[in-house]
Structure formats: C-alpha cells, structure tokens
Design a protein that fits this description.
Blueprint: E1 4-6, E2 29-33, H1 41-55, E3 59-64, E4 68-73, H2 76-86, H3 104-117, H4 126-131, E5 137-139, H5 145-154, H6 167-174, H7 176-208, H8 214-221, E6 226-227, E7 238-239, H9 244-253, H10 256-286, H11 294-305, H12 318-353, H13 359-363, H14 365-399, H15 404-432, E8 439-440, E9 443-444, E10 446-447, E11 451-452, H16 462-508, H17 518-527, H18 536-553, H19 561-583, H20 598-620, H21 623-633, H22 635-638, H23 650-654, E12 655-659, E13 683-687, H24 699-729, H25 735-761
Helix pairs in contact: 2-11, 3-11, 6-7, 7-9, 7-10, 7-19, 8-9, 10-20, 10-24, 12-14, 12-15, 14-15, 14-16, 15-20, 16-19, 18-19, 18-20, 20-24
Length: 762
C-alpha cells in the first residue's frame, strides 16, 4: 500500500502552514497499530481518533509495513498559543535562525499532552485505546543522526566515564527533568567521592589493627573457654578460640573509627543536600525556570487542546484517604511478614547447616546461613519491587489525583515506603533484634516451639550486618545493572542483525534495492528500540535513592558502602546515557525546576541516617559495652594499673556462666568435648550479663543499658544539631541567584512604571 498523507481541509490551515513543505523526517509523534480488518471495531475506533486529530489541524502520514505507522505533526498556531499564554518563548534553547519556533522538547511535550487528552466521540482517550489494543505504541522520534551525534560522542560512551556531563545538551534533547536528574546524579557522585575516600581510610585503618585488638586477642587465646551449643540436636560444645578469625574481622569493622565515620556521614548527608539546593538554584536560574509553575503550564496546554475546558478542581475524600492508609498499613504488614519469613529461614538453615556432612559448612553454619539469607533477601527485593509498583499504582488511582505531577508525587511516597521496608526490614532485624530476643540457655525463644532464634557472636553482631549489606549492595549494583543494560542491548543487536541479511541477499541476486522512504526507515528503527513509559525516569531516581539509603543509614556497619556506590554511579551515568540515546525510544521531555518530592525523601533519609547509625553504634556495635568496661570494671579502674590495655578481661566479663544440668529436657547434648580435653562438662559460657545462680540480670547489664541509651540520645542530638547548623550555614540559594531575581523584578517594575507614565502623558 502506498504511503498516505492525511490532511485537514485547506481552509482549516493557517496561512503560514504549507503541509507539503514539511521535512519528511520531522514528525512530532508516531502512533503504531496492528493492521485490523476493514470495518472492524478497532479500525473504526482508530479512524475516529485520527479524525479528531485532523480536526485540530494535525497533519498525519500513514506508512504500512508489518504494522501501521502514523506520523503526526501539529500546526504552528498551537505553539504560538503556548508562547503567548506562557509569555516565555524558551529563547535560550533556540538556534539563531529559529526565533519564531519553539524547542523540539517543548513541541513534543505539547503534542504528547494533546494526544493523551484528545477524546473521541465514544469518550475514549489514547490511553483507553491502547488498553484495547487499537494502538500498540505512541512515541516521539529520536532526532537525526547529526543532531544527536554530540551526545553520542561526548556523553553516551564508556570512555567518557570520568568526563563532565553536557547538561545543557541533555536539556536540549531530553528536557529539563532528565537534565536535572543527571545534574543531581553527577553532583551526588562527585560528593560521594569524598565520602568514599573517608570510608576507605576508616576501613584500611581497621585492617591495620586487624590483629592488634585486645578483645580479638583474648578470643583467639581462649582455648579453654567452653561455649554453650548453638543448636538443640546434638550440637557440640565449642571453644571460643575457634572463632578467632571472625573476631578479628569484627574488630576490623567495629572500632572507634566507625563512630567518627558515622558522625561524618550524618554531616555529609546534610552538606550534600544543601549544596545541591544551591547548585539546582543556579542551574534553573540560568534556564529562566526558577519561578516556573507546573500547574500554570498544564492549564495552558489544556486550554490549547480545548478552549472550553474547565479545570478539574482539587478534591479530598476522607473516606478514600482512610482506605488508602489502611491498605498501606496492610502492605507494610505483609512486607514485615516477609522479613519474619527470612528470619525463620535463617533459623532453620542454621539448624540444618550445623548437621551438614561437609565439615566447612558445619563449622561455619552461622556465616553460611547469613550469606544464603542475604541472597534470598535480594531475590525477595526483585520480586516484591514488581508487586510494590502495582499496589502503589492501584492506591494512586484510588486517590484520584488532579494532575500528573500530583499523581507522581503520591506514587513516589508510596513506592518508596514499600521499597524501604522491602530493602531494610531484614537489615533492621539483624541490626537491632538479632541475639537480643533469643532468650538464654535453658530458656530459649523458639520458632513454632522447635527452632531456636539465632545468637550473636561473642564479639558482636555487626559482622552479620556487614555481610548482609555487602551481598545485597553487590548483587543490586551488578546483576540489576547488568540486566538493565543487557536486555535492551540484545534487543537492539537482534533487530540490527535481522536487517542486514535482507540487503545482502538482494544484492547477491542482482536485484535493485527499492529506494526506501526515509520516514519508514527512521520510524522502524525507533519502533524496534526498547519501550519507555512515564515512570522510566522515576525508576532511575528510585534506584539511586535506595542506594543513597544504603549508603547513609547503616554506613556505621559498612564503611565501604560509599565506595561501592561511587564506582556504581560512574557506570550508572554512562549506562543510562547509552540506554536513552541508543537503546531506548525517546522519552517525552518534561519541564521541571527541581527534582520534585525526591528532595523531601532525601531529607527524610538524612534524619533516618542519624537515627540508624546512632542505633547501630549503641545497640549493634560492642563499642559501648567495651567503653563501660574500660572506665568501670577494667584493671585500669580497679587496680589503678596503667601498664596494661584497659580492655583486658573484657571477653570473660561479657560472658555469663550456665550450668549444663539446667538445659531443657529435650536438649540432646553430647556428654563430652573432643577427646583431648577428656573431662565432664558441667558449665558453659554464653554472651550475656546474667548471674550464675538464678540467671537474673547483673548490675553490669543495667550499666551497659544506661550507657547505650545515653550515647544514643547524645549522638542523635549532637548530629541533628550539627545538621541544623550546617543547613543554616549553607544558604539554599546562592547570593548571585538572589541578586539576579531581584534585578529581574526591578527591571520589570521599571518597565511597568514607564508604560504607565507614557499612557498618562498620551
């Protein structure tokens, strides 16, 4: 079938628009449809929609291949109305010879709005038609090769991984919202480099004292300290010295430098956000968007699309809000339940691994259970991310938001809440509950009355948290990014390979290749790229904000988190650039003057980082118990000795004594240790502060408890005060921007005054 150009009657075109003078490759949007049978319901609906576009002055070109492709181009009067209503011709983005035209990004945005809000006589919009498969896809075209070549050469290449991003060119091609995302990501990565260096120094300092810790030395030398069994079914007693390596690794993470680094990261998070606010103010002022209003532009486009349009009113339903809150709570309860399931898995895995036939697994049952639990946690994150998205969209539809921006903000808050519990519920259990709710020998807390809850190692639980975070971050930042790039890359290469043999075969048989319509070639190449949706950029933001949460909230347990995030982001920037330019269809450009509600989310994460790190140091770490021992019970205090390390004797002090005769009746214990000790076991040790006679808490327990609570309050108040001082000290808006806005207002008022005086004189 020959290509067709469908035109409105000539009388409906403005005088300055000649439809036959159109550049054959410059079309605002492409609609794709299956070839439906003539007279079918889908074919009739498609024709009605295209007729509505024609009535609005759109030029439409049809090309038939295996699918039907419709190129649409809006008349110039639509964009002139937009310029008049907004009083902002976007002159900074125009080339010198195109003062009368609007930027391509603005054209695409306006046309997309009209397409999405055009109503057929059957009261159906494009969204409804796509749900009914009347149209398969709708997308803007990537620009000609020479127009996007600069971004390919200077941005979307792996070799430019350490180069500065061309933000102005990104804005000119993808719009302000995408440009602000990359500006924020670049700024975040730049400052993350500072945090990464400090975190690496703290980690290296921990390695240098790998074997010098008095606490780890005592554990390594405790070859006569008999520990209580870690499971019920014939688990052996074990020697404390068996866990020498684990103790050294723990001290490598859990030391005085960790406390300072946690404080540093709390300050870093505040400074990062304050400096970003200044950077954003400078950027959007240069774009003349500092005082831009999203609602005003949307109302303008609604009036352009339909002059008789009445704006949708703001509305609020307490009933719907109550339902949404209840459903959100139910979803959070489900996510917490999944975290409990992961805990049960770890408990059962621990019991199974301790009875394994493999000696290594049996000896390292605790570590293996933690590692496999972390992998399982990652898999639940992958699955629940898809579930969370569907639930969040459903809840947003229940709220009936007025505008797209309002819907996006509502969706952001819900999906982030769900993702936060999905990603961090298991970490919260390990950090704050593991080893603290398991009971004691002779009176263990059990799952279903059968499996004991896990215990902390005598040197603390922080290594478990370190392992969990390391595995999740590595998996998220390798497998997820790999799949994110691999799928569209394979799709792109597959379509590219399918096109080559056809031309080669035609030349082989001496056939003359028919001159291909440049429109057809361009439209097909764009159609075969991976699909994008309205939340494509949102997904990138969400990925980075979750990473920011990992990097700040539990950084006291994982000082290498900023370093991993830094290297990931260097690749993430180029990965996203390559996807957007070469592998994905073009996003619909959107105007924006900030990163939206994500800024409030980041500020909330900054507060959670103070609370989380304070809790990790106070509860998870052994920093406080060691300090209490040093300054209350150590030989330095009781014997006034200054020649020995003040933490000498801490391990023996932190272990309680249990009489084996008091074990539960169903405990199946071996009667003896290995043969080389050859004596009956009457007592074993376990990590706690309890009396040997009645197993009640000792005075030391309450001393440590009070010290933990005091440190937590002090740490959080000091950190929050520093955050507030930093936020006050660094203004959100640079002085130059304030003066620029002041000058603009002054100039505007001067012009108004001059016009008034002129009209009075006349």
């Amino acid at each position: 079938m020959r290509d067709e150009i469908l035109l409105t009657p000539w009388r409906e075109f403005p005088d300055d628009l000649d439809p036959f003078a159109l550049d054959e490759q410059e079309w605002d949007f492409i609609l794709v449809s299956d070839i439906h049978q003539m007279g079918s319901e889908k074919e009739i609906k498609r024709k009605k929609f295209l007729d509505e576009l024609s009535k609005k002055g759109f030029t439409i070109k049809k090309i038939e291949d295996k699918k039907l492709f419709y190129g649409v181009r809006a008349p110039k009067w639509i964009f002139r109305k937009y310029q008049w209503l907004m009083r902002n011709p976007d002159s900074r983005l125009q080339s010198p010879g195109a003062h009368h035209d609007v930027p391509v990004t603005t054209r695409i945005r306006i046309v997309n709005f009209i397409l999405q809000n055009t109503v057929t006589p059957d009261l159906e919009k494009l969204r409804d038609l796509m749900k009914k498969n009347v149209f398969e896809a709708a997308f803007p075209l990537h620009e000609k090769e020479e127009k996007s070549l600069f971004l390919k050469e200077k941005w979307a290449r792996w070799r430019d991984i350490f180069c500065q991003q061309p933000i102005e060119n990104i804005r000119g091609y993808f719009g302000e919202k995408v440009a602000l995302y990359f500006a924020w990501l670049g700024w975040y990565t730049y400052l993350l480099g500072i945090a990464a260096v400090v975190g690496l120094l703290v980690f290296v300092a921990g390695i240098t004292v790998f074997s010098s810790s008095q606490v780890s030395k005592e554990i390594c030398e405790a070859n006569t300290t008999i520990m209580c069994p870690l499971c019920d079914q014939k688990c052996p007693f074990w020697l404390l010295s068996d866990t020498c390596t684990y103790a050294k690794v723990t001290h490598m993470i859990d030391n005085e430098g960790t406390v300072l680094f946690a404080m540093f990261m709390a300050i870093w998070a505040t400074v990062f956000l304050e400096l970003w606010k200044r950077q954003r103010a400078t950027v959007v002022t240069n774009w003349d968007l500092y005082q831009w209003d999203d609602d005003e532009e949307e109302l303008a486009m609604e009036l352009i699309n339909n002059p008789l349009h009445e704006p949708q009113r703001y509305q609020h339903s307490y009933f719907r809000s109550t339902i949404v809150i209840l459903l959100v709570l139910v979803m959070i309860a489900v996510l917490i339940g999944i975290a409990h399931a992961l805990v049960i898995y770890r408990v059962m895995a621990m019991a199974l691994f301790t009875q394994s036939t493999f000696e290594f697994i049996r000896e390292q049952a605790d570590t293996v259970a933690v590692m496999t639990g972390a992998v399982l946690h990652y898999l639940t994150i992958v699955i629940m991310t898809k579930v969370n998205r569907r639930v969040a969209l459903y809840l947003c539809d229940l709220e009936k938001p007025r505008t797209f921006s309002q819907r996006e903000n509502n969706f952001t808050m819900k999906i982030f809440t769900f993702q936060f519990f999905t990603n961090f519920s298991s970490l919260i259990y390990i950090a704050f509950f593991l080893g603290r709710i398991n009971g004691r020998p002779g009176n263990y807390v059990r799952v279903a009355g059968k499996w004991r809850l896990e215990e902390c190692h005598p040197s603390g639980c922080i290594t478990d948290l370190f392992i969990q975070m390391a595995i999740i971050m590595l998996l998220k930042q390798t497998i997820s990014n790999f799949m994110e790039y691999l799928v569209p890359w394979l799709t792109y290469k597959l379509h590219k390979k399918q096109k080559r043999p056809k031309k080669r075969n035609m030349m082989m048989f001496g056939e003359e290749e028919e001159a291909e319509d440049p429109c057809k070639k361009l439209w097909l190449s764009n159609y075969h790229l991976s699909e994008v949706n309205i939340f494509s950029l949102f997904d990138e933001f969400l990925e980075m904000v979750i990473q920011y949460s990992f990097t700040t909230i539990f950084v006291a347990a994982f000082p290498l988190a900023p370093l991993l995030a830094f290297f990931n982001n260097l690749f993430e920037i180029r990965l996203d650039a390559i996807k957007m330019i070469q592998l994905h269809r073009r996003m619909v450009p959107r105007k924006a003057n900030d990163i939206g509600i994500w800024l409030q989310v980041l500020e909330a994460i900054g507060i959670l980082a103070v609370i989380g790190n304070g809790l990790v140091i106070a509860i998870t770490s052994d920093f406080i118990p060691i300090q209490v021992y040093k300054y209350t019970y150590s030989p330095c205090m009781t014997e006034n000795s200054t020649t020995i390390d003040c933490s000498t004797g801490y391990i023996n002090h932190s272990l309680s004594i249990f009489r084996t005769q008091d074990f539960e009746p169903h405990m199946k214990l071996p009667e003896k240790l290995p043969d080389f000790l050859r004596h009956e076991i009457k007592e074993c040790r376990y990590r706690d502060y309890r009396n040997a006679d009645d197993y009640s808490y000792t005075v030391q327990f309450w001393h440590v408890f009070a010290a933990r609570l005091a440190f937590l309050i002090l740490f959080e108040h000091v950190a929050l005060c520093i955050k507030l001082i930093a936020a006050w000290y660094v203004p959100d808006v640079p002085q130059s921007v304030k003066n620029c806005i002041l000058d603009e207002k002054h100039t505007k008022l001067q012009k108004e005054l001059s016009m008034m005086e002129y009209s009075t004189d006349v």
